[in-house]
Amino acid sequence: MVRRVARPMLAAMFVVGGLDQLKHPGAKAKAARPVLDQAAKVGLPDDPELLVRANGVAMVGGGALLATGRVPRIASTVLAGALVPTTLAAHPFWNESDPQVRAQQKVQFLKNLGLLGGLLLAAVDTDGKPSLAYRARLAGESAQRTARTTRREAKHAAKAARREARLKAAQAQNALT
């Protein structure tokens, strides 16, 4: 029940923020320029508005998926990836000289850091079900147990067959004498 309530609450900020990035990319592109200059070094396009809109799409899509409980782990990971550049671009409190603006930016930065923590928790939440890695390990162990059991039973069957063959041979020998 908690997941059903908490996921939409966590996702709401991303859906609203992503829609804003889609509708008004200009102002955000200007603020994001220093971060986008770094992104250009890794081969991303040099179109700030396009990148802001792409980030907005990731936020709206990931937020909608998280809110509805569809692939919440993937959605949380996508949102975490979208939140990092948004936070660095929108709230660089370390660059502010005005103490009041610096304090406001720091609060917003820490708010986003808290959201990132929530997303990381959602990304590793298996919803009460064992993780894929655990299930794979369990299947591997089960296959190993099955192989050991099969080998042991084959050994017992071979031993019983040899015993039966000796018994039949002895019976045939006794019938001849």
From TrEMBL:
Signal peptide start and end residues: none
Membrane topology designation: Multi-pass membrane protein
Basic and acidic residues bias (residue ranges): 150-161
Region called Disordered, residue ranges: 140-161
Keywords, comma-separated and alphabetical: Cell membrane, Membrane, Transmembrane, Transmembrane helix
Record bears the keyword Transmembrane helix: yes
Keyword Transmembrane helix in annotation: yes
Example of a GO cellular component annotation carried by this entry: plasma membrane
Transmembrane segments: none
Localization of this protein: Cell membrane
Domain of life: Bacteria
Pfam families membership: DoxX
InterPro entries, per database record: DoxX, DoxX-like_oxidoreductase
Family the entry assigns: Belongs to the DoxX family.
Protein name: DoxX family protein
Organism: Knoellia subterranea KCTC 19937
